[in-house]
């Protein structure tokens, strides 16, 4: 599988906006987002990954390794201690399998295991791509395990992986990229490239405390595919903030007045046009209750919220045939009640 991919920028910005509001909701306040503050939601839930990499490195004691250790069992002993620090970053069955291949008394023992580990961590003459593929031959196509070994090597360039969860996260972002049953250096580099692009947008638009790390973007994708994030229903004020943040960022990018992105894809433009056309079609009247917008916004326009009739998280399209303009009360009603008869009514309006 090649590592080509396309990121739907509008979808990413929307999910980042929702992510910000979700974190504020979990923390009970707004402000800067931090993955490193243990008193906050992100620090409590996600910063363990960097600590796991550091603890595993400490167990490896790489400064002591010598090539003469290969075959002695010393490298294996260090590696077993290191994998014990992986926690949930490596499937438990994969951890057991990894240890078995380092154990001369086990039927799965592989005599090249220590050589492969030495090449990953201490052999500058062995290209990383070759070391990765040799790890597959020695330890099997155990993506969790091999990705963790490289994450421990350098957590600024490499990442842990859990294929099913990240494929689910990519699907929510409309990124057509699969990691399941695809353990290879090429696939791994594609995975990291996607997370790197997401990190760039995070740095651009989120109120971060400090520059976001690669592992922070990794955590964003993890969080958005979790059930608690998917089931979270923003209230009216939160919906308004999500919409304002999303539209503001897209508008600034399109106009060239903000952001540091290298270019503007047509996805940005289409997203802004969908919002504009949907509100224009409503003409200041809520398309559910038929009442005038509750107030005029700071730009002198009737305030209505654009709602995706079939939610984006359920595969709905970001198009005018799937959007309506609603007053805040009706928008909240749609998310809380989620009644099929209401959906059918709005779908017919969206297609008019």
Task: Please provide a written account of the structure.
The protein is mainly alpha-helical and 352 residues long. The chain has 16 helices and two strands. It has a two-stranded antiparallel sheet with strand order 1-2. The longest helix is centred in the middle third of the chain and has 21 residues, at 185-205.
Helix content: 55-70%
Strand content: under 5%
**Which segments are poorly predicted (pLDDT under 50) over 5 or more consecutive residues?**
260-270
The number of strands is: 2
Number of helices: 16
Nutshell version of this structure?
It is built from 16 helices and two strands.
Keywords:
single chain; 352 residues; mainly alpha; 55% helix; elongated
Secondary structure elements and pairings:
Layout: H1 9-27, H2 41-46, H3 48-60, H4 74-83, H5 92-100, H6 113-122, H7 128-139, H8 143-153, H9 163-172, H10 185-205, H11 214-224, H12 227-230, H13 236-255, H14 266-282, E1 305-308, E2 323-326, H15 328-337, H16 340-350
């Amino acid at each position: 599988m090649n590592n080509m991919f396309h990121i739907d920028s509008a979808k990413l910005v929307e999910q980042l906006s929702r992510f910000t509001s979700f974190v504020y909701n979990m923390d009970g306040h707004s402000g800067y987002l931090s993955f490193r503050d243990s008193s906050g939601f992100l620090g409590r839930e996600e910063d363990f990954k960097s600590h796991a990499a550091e603890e595993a490195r400490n167990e490896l004691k790489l400064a002591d390794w010598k090539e003469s250790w290969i075959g002695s069992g010393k490298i294996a002993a260090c590696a077993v201690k290191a994998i014990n620090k992986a926690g949930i970053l490596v499937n438990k069955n994969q951890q057991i399998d990894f240890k078995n291949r380092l154990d001369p008394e086990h039927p799965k023992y592989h005599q090249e295991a220590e050589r492969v580990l030495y090449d990953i961590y201490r052999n500058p003459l062995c290209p990383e791509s070759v070391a990765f593929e040799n790890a597959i031959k020695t330890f099997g196509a155990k993506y969790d395990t091999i990705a963790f070994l490289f994450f421990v090597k350098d957590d600024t360039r490499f990442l842990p992986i859990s294929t099913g969860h990240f494929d689910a996260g990519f699907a929510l972002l409309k990124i057509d990229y699969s990691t399941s049953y695809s353990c290879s250096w090429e696939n791994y580099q594609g995975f990291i490239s996607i997370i790197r692009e997401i990190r760039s947008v995070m740095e651009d638009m989120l109120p971060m405390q400090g520059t976001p790390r690669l592992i922070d973007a990794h955590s964003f994708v993890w969080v958005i595919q979790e059930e608690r994030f998917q089931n979270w229903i923003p209230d009216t004020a939160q919906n308004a903030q999500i919409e304002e943040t999303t539209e503001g960022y897209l508008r600034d990018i399109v106009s060239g007045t903000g952001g540091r992105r290298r270019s503007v894809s047509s996805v940005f433009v289409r997203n802004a046009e969908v919002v504009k056309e949907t509100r224009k079609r409503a003409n200041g009247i809520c398309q559910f209750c038929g009442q005038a917008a509750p107030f005029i916004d700071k730009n002198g326009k009737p305030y209505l919220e654009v709602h995706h009739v079939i939610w984006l998280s359920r595969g709905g399209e970001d198009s005018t045939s799937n959007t309506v303009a609603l007053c805040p009360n009706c928008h909240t009603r749609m998310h809380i009640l989620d009644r099929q008869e209401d959906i059918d009514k709005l779908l017919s309006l969206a297609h008019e």
